[in-house]
Amino acid sequence: MLSDSDIEALEDILFAEPWGDEAVDFFGLHGVVCASVVGPASLSTEDIFRLATGTDETPESEVPETFRTAVEQLARDMAHSLDLGQPLELPEPEDGDPMNALENWCAGFVDTFLENEDAWLEAGEEETADLLVPMLTLSGLFEDEDFQNVRNSPKLSRDMADAIPDSLTDLYLLFHAPD
After folding, report:
1. How far are the Cα atoms of 22, 66, 153 from residue 51, in angstroms, in the given order?
2. How many helices (H) and strands (E) does the chain have?
3. H or E segment to which residue 132 belongs
4. Which of 15, 35, 57, 168 has its CA 20 to 30 A from that of 27?
5. Is 165:88 a contact under the CB 8 Å cutoff?
6. Coil, strand, or helix at residue 75?
7. For the chain, what is the largest distance between any 2 Cα atoms, rounded to a whole number of angstroms?
8. Does the reported pTM lie above 0.85?
9. How far apart (Å, rounded) are the C-alpha atoms in residues 17 and 35?
């Protein structure tokens, strides 16, 4: 588990120049790392950095060590929980809007899915699509009327949010359980 100071250090990196305007916050980064862990394509720290900062390439200078260490810790913690059969807990904001934090988390997750969409759908397009519905819906990335109707309904949004931990477990099992 990352400490508050680890999270603060991560956000200092994410919001730094030159990518600060395009970067995700900690919740979005958590979603990116989570998709890398549960999905079929384990991303390198450099790829996670690129997705989290919204850049096309990793910077000429190395990925900051603080970022690398925190991302590796997050990924290990997530994989360990899933390997033990425990549902993943999404980060909760200490203050502010929990639905905004959830939307940011889902957007990071969905961006990572879209980066490797073919690999995700190879395992079974229909099953994968069904399991992705909560994240796709709450990400705010799609203008689909049905998704908007769910996002505009506090009860339906809460139901979708509540379904995410089970969906993550099922996705992990789909891609990582022995045959």
Report:
1. 10, 17, 30
2. 9, 0
3. helix 125-138
4. 57
5. yes
6. helix
7. 46
8. yes
9. 26
